[in-house]
What does this fold into?
Amino acid sequence: MVQSAVSPPIAAPVSPASAAPPASPAPRTRAGKRLSIVAPCFNEQEVLDMFFARIEADLAALGVDYEIVCVNDGSRDHTLAVLLKHHQRNPRVKVINLARNFGKETALSAGLDAATGDMIVPIDVDLQDPPELIGQFLDAWEAGADVAYGVRIDRSADSPLKRLTAQGFYKAFNRMSDVDLPYNAGDYRLMDRRVVEVIRQLPERNRFMKGLFAWVGFNQVAVPYARPERAAGTSSFRYWKLWNFALDGITSFSTAPIRVWSYVGLVAGVLAVGVAGMIVLRTLLFGRDVPGYPSLMVVILMSFGLQMLAIGSLGEYVARIYQEVKGRPLYVVMDRYGFDQAGDGA
It folds into this structure.
């Protein structure tokens, strides 16, 4: 089954910075509503049993109907088999099996497309997103919030290098982008159905979900929590992958990396004119000067390096244009289990 990413135009989102918040948001109730949990999975066989044990216990205490939509993102271990075991045990566990590994952002998008709830919560199955926080998300939603997102106030479970690089990324992103990304906020959040419907209509293939969640606006509130260590298994995100992820985020929401080279070129041009004027003046006053080859090589190599950086920055954007204009589907579904639609592999 092929999922198309092409969608009709959407209405302009409401920005929290430009639109005045409602004086008294309409009261909501979870009674009679459905909560969708969306869980992307990649090589998570070791932690899935613990995940289902905890989240099902927490959901049962919330007094709300629920479904758990798990997306197997081309796992190479027994993740799919474990997911199907829990689907057979609990029909509210639904499974989407993608045809290959498309990446977490795309797997999350596939889960959002399949979720049917009035409220949707993306969550990592490694239990670093505590399921107990969903109750607080629901309370914020009933109080009028369209999005309640988790903010990690304690990241001691992460390495010092990861904490440092994460802090640097948030600062760099918010300086270069018109979208303010909440510090230490991940994908873990509760979103109202109308927010998810807007996100589903965003057509880009290079998807930085944290940025998309912030871009849509609506009434968003933060819920602080301490981020624990991973319950089991190992993370598939290594530093090189995180670096590329950061590049995707910045280039998806800012033109600063390519615009800066206009200023670099301007400064270099002014300096070149100034240096040329000095050489002409010195030649007129003191006669012909023998050129210094070491300094010449330094200038040439430095200019070459700057040119390569500029071409590389341009290439990042051209590559993304190339991906977009091909118009390929965002993901391909091989099988679906637990869904009622005909022909979905259930």
